Amino acid sequence: MNQLTFLGTGDAMGVPRVYCDCAVCTEARLTGINQRKRSSVLIHSDGATEPFMIDCGPDWRSQMEDQGLRMVHTLLVTHAHFDHIGGLPEWADACRWLGVKGSLYAPREVITTIQGQFPWLSRHMNFLETDDDIQLGGWNVHSWKVCHGKNGYSYAYRLEREGYSWAYCSDAIDLKEAEKKPLHGLDLLVLGTSFVHELAEFSTRSVYDMREAQELLGELKPGCTYFTHMSHDVDVQQNYDLDPGITLATTGMKVPLGSV
């Protein structure tokens, strides 16, 4: 079955934040319902021998242990911020010990940045560009650049097969019409929303909040939406009166991609 698994749904700092005793961080320590590792997903695909991942943050090792996985050979990367690539040295070490070369897919400029930060990674993985559409695990994959606000840019991915389309857009804000275009006509959208309502000055921000995201969804009209990349502002036990079709993703949540 084509299936999406949320390995992590947290923002750059994760939840709980080590310094914080707010109600959400406290609950995360006590019961783990709000515990959130850095955002990443795992995709199982019909006909593929193994799943692939989107992003490889600093929680990669524990996310693999959570799923009982010893290796994933293929990664898609959205951008070169630490919460999305901090696990690459551990992945490279797994490649080295197992005597295999991983396949890291990303847009050219993201690859260039990663190679500048970790010049030795190419000994353990192949870097493959996604600037032209690619096929991965039976999916047609399209990447495009999106505004990441104060933090520069990220990339989103739209994946299609057998008449089903979904997209992963974890780090974006203030999308212009051209950036929104590939997000139309989706059966499912995974969208980053760090806060319920972020009060920081707009020019200092980098990810949609839930109020803004619902306005965006009013334009895009996906079949369903899962919010991810959530900070300790978000309590998944609360009813935020979100529009129908929106779900707050939680760690380990599995979602079918297409008919069950």
UniProtKB/TrEMBL annotation:
Name the PANTHER family for this protein: HYDROLASE C777.06C-RELATED (PTHR42663:SF6), HYDROLASE C777.06C-RELATED-RELATED (PTHR42663)
**Protein name stated in the entry:** MBL fold metallo-hydrolase
Q: What is the lineage of its organism?
A: Bacteria, Bacillati, Bacillota, Bacilli, Bacillales
What is the originating organism of this protein? Answer: Paenibacillus illinoisensis
What the protein does comes down to: Counteracts the endogenous Pycsar antiviral defense system. Phosphodiesterase that enables metal-dependent hydrolysis of host cyclic nucleotide Pycsar defense signals such as cCMP and cUMP.
The catalysed reaction is: 3',5'-cyclic CMP + H2O = CMP + H(+); 3',5'-cyclic UMP + H2O = UMP + H(+)
* Gene3D superfamilies linked to this entry: Ribonuclease Z/Hydroxyacylglutathione hydrolase-like
Q: Name one Pfam family in it.
A: Lactamase_B_2
The segment(s) forming the Metallo-beta-lactamase domain are: 37-229
Q: Which InterPro entries match?
A: Metallo-B-lactamas (IPR001279), RibonucZ/Hydroxyglut_hydro (IPR036866)
The organism's place on the tree of life at top rank? Bacteria
